[in-house]
Amino acid sequence: MSRYLDNVIASLRSLYLAMISFIVIYAYVALSLFAHNQALSNLIALDKLLALRQIAKSVPSLKTDKLILKDAPQFFFKASEDFSEELQKLEEKLDAEIDEALKEDSDSKPGEKKTDSELQKFNEPIDRTGILKDVPMRLAVGAVCDVVVTQLLPGRQFTFATLQVVSGFYTVKSEDTRLFSFSRCAPGQPKEFNALIFSLPNGQAAFAIPRSLEEEFPGLKVGPLFRAYIFQDVDGVKKFLPPQIAKYADLDGSFVTLHIRAIDYFILNYARFRIGKFFRADEVESAAEKLYEEKEKDASYLGLTTTSTNLVRLGPLIFFAFSFVLWLRVRLLPIRKLRSDEYWFVFETNDWVGRAYAYLSAVAPFLFGIIVYVLFAVSQNLAQPMFGYMVSLQGLLRLEFPPAPPSGWLVTDAFASVIGLTLVPANFLILFLTVRKLVQVVRANSMPRNARTG
Questions:
Q1: Most buried residue among 117, 218, 366, 435 by CB atoms closer than 10 A?
Q2: Residue 442 neighbours by CB distance under 10 Å
Q3: What is the pLDDT of residues 70-123, one digit of tens each?
Q4: Which of 158, 88, 157, 128 lies closest to 243 in space, CA to CA?
Q5: Within a 10 A sphere around the Cβ of 38, how many other Cβ atoms?
Q6: What is the reported pLDDT for 301?
Q7: In a shared domain, residues 284 and 367
Q8: How many domains in the chain?
Q9: 279 and 263, same structural domain?
């Protein structure tokens, strides 16, 4: 029996060492993936800034295709939500009217006359709005993206300031202001991005961009004494947009104003920080290219050529195997005072320090599980739609819950969903049973030698 117990304890000790080694390696890979994804998020924001910068320089000569109302769901979340229901109802109504006319053996089809006129409104072009085709965006599918351009109606003047890099106060007519709407222009979960471009004298331009972009592109975030100017007239912008765009474009939240030269400065400064190289003011494109090249250098891990994403996604499966084997070993332990020539944490119960160490070691597998699954979620920026909002671990910590995109836009991760719905509950059940047994063994071994252990 003593030899059998020695073998069990030796195997448990080896399993603990293997699990700790796995956790250390997994944490390193997961944190590297998190840093990689943060850099990717920065580059997606850089893509938007470069696109706005290029568009601003060619605003007077922009050539766009007409945007018809039916195409609005491709660019605006709210349009997608409204159209899916309205179009379906109208099409069902049209089919019902045609069927009724056929049953009456009528030569005319009233359905085509009544309902088709209602469907026709979806084929009408939106006033002062067009699609700017093939805007270069390095990270978009095909490295280009279509952008909706809307010129505001005349009749209003916008007054604002730029405070960073180029300081000044400006008054711009509404007809010299354009709204640019990007969507599906980046990898990952689709996001709608809207920005205003104000045409300034001498071919210059200023932007009103969502303040949330400061979180995506850290180069925009500076100290509190040098914050960007908050654009105060977003409601005025909505009033001078065509009704369809005003209804569907997401202009909620704060917008900050920046001069185009400030955008150049922030891109160059970020490139200097990331690459450690100084770039001149006329080398914005070169600096951006270096940043893209840096992102493409994916390091291998432990001699493996697989990406860090694959290693992180396999982590829960490997940890589940460790947990199951550990449970098979732990369940063989008797709940009594043990005697063995092998060293084990359970025997460190002679004083309060030893008992604290023993109990901490007993609950360690449960803590390992928490670490693995938190790293699994955070490193991949996983989020789940709940009650119309996207919920993530990072969002819970920051109390930030962005609106969930409509079902047609939502990108789901089937593998992560399976892990969350099946593997996580099963794994933590096994870990709970394992920890409970280990705590019972530690408690039994911490009792006086002549005490009853049950």
A1: 435
A2: 22
A3: 778 778 877 776 666 666 666 666 666 666 666 655 554 444 455 555 566 677
A4: 128
A5: 13
A6: 46
A7: no
A8: 2
A9: yes
Say yes or no: 348 and 203 in one domain. no
Q: What is the pLDDT of residue 452?
A: 46
Task: Assess contact for 23 and 365: CB atoms under 8 A.
Answer: no
The rounded Cα 28 to chain-centroid distance in angstroms is: 21
Tell me the residue range of the domain where 226 lies: 58-75+124-295
Residues 6 or more apart whose CB falls under 8 angstroms from that of 132 comprise 55, 62, 63, 64, 146, 147, 148, 149, 180
pLDDT of residue 37: 80
Q: Element (H or E) spanning 395, and its range? A: helix 393-398
Last residue of a domain, one of 270, 295, 320: 295
Q: How would DSSP label each residue in 273-318?
A: HHH-----TT-HHHHHHHHHHHHT-PPPBTTB-S-HHHHHHHHHHH
CA end-to-end span of the chain, whole Å?
A: 19
The answer to whether residues 179 and 201 touch, using CB atoms and an 8 Å cutoff, is: no
Instruction: Write down the pLDDT at residue 317.
Output: 94
pLDDT of residue 425: 94
Domain termination site, one of 244, 265, 295: 295
- One domain for residues 252 and 325: no
3 membership: H or E segment, kind and range: helix 2-57
**What radius of gyration, in Å, describes the C-alpha atoms of the chain?**
30
Long-range CB contacts for residues 22-26, cutoff 8 Å, separation at least 24: 22/318, 22/319, 22/322, 23/368, 23/371, 23/372, 25/302, 26/311, 26/312, 26/315, 26/319, 26/372, 26/375
193: enclosing H helix or E strand: strand 193-199
* 283 and 154 fall within a common domain: yes
**Rounded Cα–Cα distance for residues 149 and 66 (Å):** 10
What number of other Cβ atoms are within 10 A of residue 66's Cβ?
Answer: 11
pLDDT for res 352: 78
- Closest alpha carbon to 136 in 40, 67, 58: 58
Does residue 263 lie in a domain region?
A: yes
The pTM is what?
0.71
How far apart (Å, rounded) are the C-alpha atoms in residues 141 and 193?
Answer: 17
What residues of the chain score a pLDDT lower than 70?
Answer: 1-2, 59-62, 81-121, 188-190, 219-227, 296-307, 340-344, 346-349, 387-390, 394-412, 447-454
Question: What is residue 451's predicted lDDT score, i.e. its pLDDT?
Answer: 46
Nearby residues of 266 by Cβ (< 8 Å), 6 or more positions away? 49, 165, 217, 219, 220
The pLDDT assigned to 101 comes to: 61
289 with 310, same domain: the answer is no
- In terms of domains, do 341 and 197 share one? no
